[in-house]
Amino acid sequence: MNWRSGFLLAVCLVPLMAACSTEEDERLDDLAAARSQWIADAPAAYDFTYFRSCFCPDVFPARVYVDAGVVTLVVDLQSSDPLPADRNGDFPTVDQLFNELEELIRLEPFQLEVRYDPELGYPSYVGVDIEERVVDEEFSYTVDDLVASIQPEALR
């Protein structure tokens, strides 16, 4: 192969290789950028409103308190009552949301909609339909009103 053939081959392959970038790659890039923003700007202690919507029991909006990467308190916003401490593990930290989202992206679901908070980078909305022909496995969650917090008196 002479240099002209090699040059033409390279000129033809570069656009084809660029076209191979998948939606999964783009989503993973967006996730990595958002995660980096979160890591750079995340408060050590924070709280947020979390609501998961799914075809499952025991779904309600909750205020989730996190300190040093651990859920320390969850308050049911419908009743204003704190949940028993053994339920804290049922609710995610932002880092756990990033991990769950990465797993979802790698599954290449039928539909996936993601929005990130423009200031801190955390996933503020995720809606997913894993399989096109499966009924009632869709779910979504929202994260709202995330603020740096001083942990409630009950935890001190």
Topology of this structure?
Elements: H1 3-19, H2 23-41, E1 45-54, E2 62-67, E3 70-76, H3 94-107, E4 111-116, E5 123-129, E6 139-148
Antiparallel strand pairs: 1-2, 1-6, 2-3, 4-5, 5-6
Helix pairs in contact: 2-3
- Please tell me the total number of domains: 1
- Please state the structural category: alpha+beta
Beta-strand residue percentage: 25-35%
The helix-strand sequence is HHEEEHEEE
CATH topology: outer membrane lipoprotein receptor (LolB), chain A
How many strand segments?
6
The second-level CATH architecture is Clam
- Contiguous uncertain segments of 5+ residues: 3-20
- State the major sheet: 6 strands, antiparallel
The top level CATH class name: Mainly Beta
Radius of gyration: 21 Å
Q: Can you give the mean pLDDT?
A: 85
Shape: flat
